[in-house]
Amino acid sequence: MVRYYHSPDLLSLVEQATRVCQNNEETVAYMKMNALLLLQLLNGQEVADAVQDADKQLLALESDPASRGSHGIHQVRLKTKQTVDRLALDVTEATLSFAQSCPLPGSYPSALHALLKCPDDFQAAILATLRAGGDNAGRAAMLGTWLGAHLGMEGIPERWRAKLTNKDRISKAAGAIVAQARQYW
What we know:
Elements: H1 10-19, H2 25-42, H3 47-63, H4 70-85, H5 91-98, H6 104-117, H7 122-131, H8 136-151, H9 158-162, H10 167-184
Helix pairs in contact: 1-2, 2-3, 2-4, 2-8, 3-4, 4-6, 5-6, 6-7, 6-8, 7-8
């Protein structure tokens, strides 16, 4: 995504990449929402505003007669609304209401809920999604990506980063990705 950050073809590229392994409209719609949300977060928007703006952009795609997969987009938008409607629940309760399983109709809203509940606390968000059980690794991967885009490396607790087996190699690679991304920002 870093390479195509400002590309007008970003969503088309996301669709092509997704269809390599998941050739269905709903998965493509989830990945488009993911890309739109990441763009908003990378542009410095606050989490709630980023979710709302990404959803509006998805709505525009749903309304576009040339756009394929309006049913998939509708499903993603419905899950996003259900997530917002459940913000009074804690992360475990919300996850149980969506499903603890790997498929995106359960994992996406559960990860999004944790993001919205703990938008500025990487540790609290990740631990909350882990405590919710089930496929917490998949949810944590989504959540960590969004929080990383929002908070940057500094948002990850230093003691967590210090425990990485290949900390120096990972830090160097992350720095290279950020340096490359700055060419396109």
